[in-house]
Design a protein that fits this description.
Bound molecules: flavin-adenine dinucleotide, iron/sulfur cluster
Strand content: 15-25%
Number of strands: 16
């Protein structure tokens, strides 16, 4: 009888790739996890129980065929594992690195429910595609036919790029417009290198270029080029602009120098430390934590990225203020643990109410307690009267979340319907907006979300655009 290659979770314990020591990793912006060696990846894949109903797959936004590529990896059929993996995910090695797996695939792994520790799905997904790149299996797209129809995509983040890839596979002429100088959106300038090294993103952009995708960079739509001009030039348009309006803080002194937005801080760091760009505000110290007492306000993943960046820049101290407690924070517990190992201090149940100094020197903090659950089921923070104190600080980073910019106003397009939150109103599953031939995907539709959801939207919308080009658009041209 053939030996059973899978279900090894009873004998093989869960083992993540090696994590660099905190003292080593805080000296640079490189990723903190090493790659699996081949044998380790095979062993860890073999732990999968090959469930009849794979909950990991249904909780992955891309419905990746996880049990299949785990089995192929465990049985030394890595090239086939790569083929299966890339058939549902445009950027598997990126998701493997930065998806919050504890809330998605791994959080629903059945063997974890039985106390054996989840299969390390993300780390295997990363291993498969990193190896595919190494072996030359990841090839530029060469469409079987070239079509004369074109699509303009506004925004070169994961949503726009996933759609660009799918459309090029079908032979559509694709132009991507972006206001930044480099493509990748938040993959490039938001997420720090210690979570996602930049060459992993750039090799994808290079390959899209080799596949025939045209990039028009430094092009702020609404300023350098009108939305109507793009609509006039292409057969369909995809809006994938993300959300960039930072939520702000009020209170006395909140306009002081040294109180900065998380997105500005992270962009400057990514440019200076990962790409070697000269960034004036980084050089001047305005957006640089070196030698400073840093307070980051917020409890989401952006706040985690800021605190860990500040540590790497050589801050004197780094504190994170959050108005709820550890259990109720939105950021991933894995990232909190990483931040703590690196020397970040979390000050739970704390909210800033005022700032001192023309150039900030302190944050007045009010202590909170958690009260009754609100309508969403989350316990609402309540003020503890008389508990105020001052945290000394000379750099305060606001990481309170993002909202959409007012696109209809910025682009002068009354017909583009938005929701009451300002996100673009788009049909679920297609991204179709209120304007004929105009689609929208990613954060600009969902509000601040995840890379994997932007990829899913981009792929779905590309499919809907193809149907539009073959149907209504083709008929109108006849
Ligand atoms: C600091 C930070 C850390 C994060 N960490 C994670 C993580 O670990 N895991 C995860 O899954 N998600 C994470 N996210 C969320 C994730 O990055 C986003 O959900 C995802 O990038 C959204 O993709 P998108 O394509 O919709 O938009 P974006 O990635 O934001 O890309 C939008 C692009 O549109 C361009 N653009 C905007 N307006 C215009 C215009 N008018 N003209 C031309 N171009 C324009 C922008 O320059 C940008 O390049 C993080 C977000 C932040 C801010
Ligand atoms: S894409 Fe994300 S959620 Fe899906 S299998 Fe990969 S890591 Fe898990």
């Amino acid at each position: 009888m053939a030996k059973q290659p899978m279900l090894k979770f009873v004998t093989i314990p869960r083992d993540m790739p090696q994590k660099r020591d905190a003292s080593d990793r805080t000296g640079d912006f490189d990723e903190i996890y090493a790659e699996y060696a081949a044998q380790k990846a095979e062993e860890q894949s073999a732990r999968c129980s090959q469930c009849g109903v794979p909950y990991c797959q249904s909780h992955c936004p891309l419905h990746n065929n996880i049990p299949d590529w785990l089995r192929l990896t465990a049985t030394h059929r890595l090239e086939e594992a790569y083929e299966v993996s890339q058939s549902t995910n445009t950027f598997p090695e990126i998701c493997g690195r930065i998806c919050p797996q504890d809330r998605l695939c791994e959080g629903n792994c059945v063997i974890e429910q039985s106390g054996h520790g989840t299969v390390t799905i993300g780390a295997v997904e990363k291993y498969i595609t990193d190896t595919a790149w190494e072996k030359g299996w990841v090839k530029p797209v060469t469409p079987a036919i070239e079509r004369d129809q074109s699509v303009g995509i506004i925004g070169a983040g994961p949503g726009g790029l996933a759609a660009a890839d799918m459309l090029r596979r079908a032979g559509v002429q694709v132009t991507v417009y972006d206001r930044y100088d480099r493509a990748g959106g938040l993959l490039t300038y938001g997420i720090p290198g210690f979570k996602l090294e930049k060459d992993v993103v750039m090799r994808r952009i290079d390959q899209l270029e080799q596949s025939g995708v045209e990039f028009v960079m430094n092009c702020n739509v609404g300023e350098d080029l009108t939305f109507d001009a793009i609509r006039g030039k292409h057969d369909a348009v995809l809006i994938a602009t993300g959300v960039y309006k930072s939520r702000d803080l009020g209170g006395p002194g909140s306009g002081a120098q040294g109180i900065v937005k998380a997105i500005d801080y992270l962009t400057a760091s990514n440019r200076a430390s990962n790409f070697g760009d000269t960034v004036e505000e980084f050089e001047s110290g305005e957006l640089n934590a070196s030698g400073k007492r840093v307070v980051v306000i917020g409890g989401g993943d952006t706040a985690m990225d800021c605190v860990r960046t500040a540590i790497r820049q050589g801050a004197l101290s780094v504190k994170c203020l959050y108005r709820r407690d550890r259990l109720n924070m939105p950021g991933s517990q894995r990232e909190v643990a990483n931040a703590e190992e690196e020397g970040v201090e979390f000050v739970w149940l704390s909210a800033p109410i005022a700032f001192s100094g023309d150039s900030v020197s302190g944050v007045t903090v009010q202590k909170m307690r958690l009260g009754q659950p609100d309508a969403t089921g989350r316990q609402a923070p309540e003020v503890i009267e008389g508990s105020d104190y001052v945290e000394d600080s000379d750099l305060v980073i606001k990481a309170l979340g993002f909202e959409p910019e007012d696109l209809p106003k910025l682009w002068d397009t009354d017909g583009l319907e938005v929701t009451r939150w300002g996100t673009v109103r788009a049909e679920f599953g297609t991204g179709k907006t209120s304007l004929d031939g105009v689609y929208a995907v990613g954060d600009i539709v969902r509000g601040a979300s995840l890379v994997v959801w932007a990829i899913r939207d981009g792929r779905d919308s590309a499919q809907a655009i193809l149907e539009y080009l073959d149907g209504p658009k083709a008929m109108a041209a006849e």
